TrEMBL record:
Organism: Paraphaeosphaeria minitans
GO biological-process terms attached to the record: methylation
Gene Ontology molecular function, alphabetical: trans-aconitate 2-methyltransferase activity
Entry keywords, A to Z: Methyltransferase, Transferase
Pfam families listed in its UniProt record: Methyltransf_25 (PF13649)
Residue stretches making up the Methyltransferase domain: 89-177
Name recorded for this polypeptide: Methyltransferase type 11
Length: 324
């Protein structure tokens, strides 16, 4: 089991809103039109691509408790819908096992399977939870046997928009009646932490500029770009899932993580959203210059608190659907 002491302290969280959606018109399958070309990322994207550099579970777990807090919040809403003491649970994009650990703590009798595409993540997960089952898988093609819960803590954001909701619909449609699809995704496309990635990568004449010359950073229609697609509006999720669900619950929470400074924000995103940018920069000197400029701009965007720390606002969207 992953222990709290190995993951760091949980920092304060502010909930901005949590509300149930109202009934909306049926989802139109042609709503999503951009290219379906997968995003070129490390293997944790779980898209079928040639082998790419792996993720670092160690980097990811520098902020393990903060990353796991949304999993606990999502699990708290799943509990009421699980009617068996031995549920079959799949943790999609399980990472180093922190979310799988939280699921097993909430459902001690569960048969849990964690799935990820990163060998390093799976290695850490297996070592931390030897009694759980972990498999290498591709999110875009993964087929689950009969499951009571399909759970995902921060992985569907890695799919391009034309793939994301259709994949969720496929998973929900394949579940038995009463089973639960529970998903959380970061919803921070417009947050300074992520907007500044795009701004810095787009800077003309910089040491790193040549490494982004073959794409248009921030242009949603360009599938080659390193930035992730914005998360769809809540009503889009609702209208896509509701035809297959007896209920769909959607809410958005913005966590306020207390970090040591702009450098700590860099370390946070180096474990996730900054990876596609860094993987593009093939020169270490250019990569160092990119990180220094990114940190400089973060320091301007995140004012220092009286105790010298900063607040990283981190919005996340939660979707919980129960199969009809």
């Amino acid at each position: 089991m992953l222990r709290p002491s190995s993951l760091g302290a949980i920092h304060p969280m502010t909930t901005l809103s949590r509300s149930r959606t109202q009934a909306l018109p049926f989802f139109q399958s042609r709503l999503l039109q951009p290219s379906t070309t997968p995003l070129a990322l490390p293997s944790r994207t779980m898209a079928s691509q040639p082998k790419k550099p792996d993720w670092s579970a160690t980097q990811y777990l520098k902020f393990g408790n903060e990353r796991t807090r949304p999993a606990h919040d999502l699990i708290s809403q799943v509990r009421a819908h699980v009617q068996t003491s031995t549920p079959r649970i799949y943790d999609l994009g399980c990472g180093p096992g922190n979310s799988t650990s939280a699921l097993l703590a909430a459902f001690p009798g569960a048969q849990a399977t964690g799935m990820d595409s990163s060998p390093d993540m799976l290695s850490k997960a297996s070592a931390a939870l030897p009694d759980a089952h972990f498999v290498h898988g591709d999110l875009a093609t993964f087929e689950t046997p009969a499951a009571d819960v399909l759970f995902s803590n921060a992985v569907f954001q890695w799919l391009r928009s034309p793939q994301r909701i259709p994949t969720l619909v496929r998973f929900l449609a394949g579940l038995k009646s009463g089973a639960v699809l529970a998903v959380q995704v970061p919803d921070n496309y417009a947050a300074p932490s992520h907007a500044l990635m795009r701004d810095v990568a787009s800077a003309p004449g910089a040491a790193w500029s040549a490494f982004f010359a073959d794409c248009t950073v921030g242009e949603v229609g360009d599938a080659r770009r390193p930035d992730l697609d914005p998360i769809e509006a809540p009503r889009t999720f609702y209208e896509a899932l509701m035809p297959y669900a007896r209920s769909v619950d959607i809410w958005r929470t913005e966590y306020q993580h207390v970090l040591e400074g702009a450098g700590a924000i860099v370390e946070w995103v180096k474990g996730t959203g900054l990876q596609p940018y860094l993987q593009r920069i093939g020169d270490e000197g250019a990569k160092k210059a990119f990180l220094e400029e990114y940190e400089r701009r973060l320091a301007e965007a995140y004012p220092v608190l009286k105790d010298g720390k900063v607040l990283l606002g981190y919005p996340r969207l939660f979707v919980l659907a129960v199969r009809k």
